[in-house]
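Q: Here's a chain of 210 amino acids. Please give me its 3D structure as tokens.
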Amino acid sequence: MSDRRNRDRAWAILFARGVLGLIFFMAGVWKVFELTPVGHAHKYFVDPYADTFLPAWSLWAVGVAVPVVELVAGALVILGLRVRTALIALGFVLLVVTFGHLLKEPLYEFHTHVIPRLALLLFVLGGGPVFARGDPRAAKALIDPPPSGRVGAIMRLSRVGGFPISLELSAVKRATASPPEPLSTEDPCFPGCGSHKQFRSRFAFSPRSF
């Protein structure tokens, strides 16, 4: 059952990443090749915010940069390359857009534009670190299930959730290792066996040890 949940979670993150990447990538394509970055800066930044306290150079810089960031970051998200960095860049784009809308209209309705994109971004960034990094182990987990049992469950969780497999496996080994049996006086070998005598002599206190 946990294996199926992990696979469903992996597919969900993969689909969310694809949709989010396409949204920003297609917007970047239109803004770069149709509207052009300069036209985007004029239409959405320089002209609308000319009467605000924002300096003109900042409006030009942000207005020209946003289309390029959306184009490049959206493509990286789709391809699974440097996706964490791309998601952070797109998060700053959403932050800039939010500030701009609130500056002109304090009660702007974000549920039609910003909130859906932000929800997908947070889901991918926080829900699947391995997928966000484009780790090939994530895709491999969908078609190459790890062995069954507790170790397999940890490996599946590692592949989907982004936890280091080596650390998780070591934790499993520690958890599953049987604790050493305490030394009992009822042991017929106590205290006369040679191993016990050697142990006692090795750790016996003497005046030289202080």
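Q: Can you summarize the key feature?
A: Residues 24 and 164 are 31 Å apart (CA to CA).
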